[in-house]
Specification:
Length: 132
C-alpha cells in the first residue's frame, strides 16, 4: 500500500512522509478494519443508481462513526483513514477481495503512541448556513 499511495500522490508535497506515517500507524495498530460497499447488496433500481450508491456510502460512514464511538467508549483510540478512496482497487485486489466490493474507509484501533499536534477545526458556525 505504501508504494501505491506514493505513486498516486507523487505530485503532492509530503506524499512520502504521509505514506510512511500511514504505514507506521497501521503496523502499530492491533486491529484494522476495511469497510467496503458491496455492489451485490445494493438495490438495483433503474434511474436511482447514484442515489442508491450515495445512501450506501452514507450508511458505511455512519457505521464507521459508530465503531469509532464504541472504541472511544472502551478507552481505545480509533483512526478513520480515507486512503481507500484513492487506492481502493489496489487494496481490494491486494487482499483478494471480491470485485463487487468497493473499499471506502480503513479504520485502525488501539492506543496512541503519542499525542498528535492539535489541528484547527472549523466550528459549527463556519460549517452551518442559515436561511431566513
Amino acid at each position: 500500500m505504501y508504494g501505491r499511495y506514493i505513486e498516486r500522490f507523487k505530485d503532492e508535497p509530503g506524499a512520502e512522509e504521509k505514506a510512511a506515517r500511514l504505514r507506521r500507524r497501521l503496523r502499530n495498530a492491533p486491529l484494522a478494519i476495511l469497510l467496503c460497499l458491496d455492489h451485490k447488496m445494493m438495490r438495483n433500481i433503474a434511474g436511482r443508481e447514484r442515489i442508491e450508491w450515495v445512501m450506501a456510502t452514507q450508511s458505511i460512514a455512519a457505521a464507521a462513526e459508530n465503531m469509532w464511538l464504541a472504541a472511544r467508549s472502551m478507552g481505545l483510540d480509533a483512526m478513520w483513514i480515507a486512503a481507500p478512496l484513492a487506492i481502493g482497487d489496489y487494496m481490494r485486489d491486494g487482499l483478494g477481495l471480491d470485485g463487487s466490493l468497493e473499499p471506502q474507509i480503513l479504520m485502525a484501533f488501539g492506543h496512541r503512541l503519542n499525542d498528535p499536534e492539535p489541528k484547527r477545526e472549523l466550528g459549527w458556525r463556519e460549517l452551518t448556513i442559515f436561511i431566513e
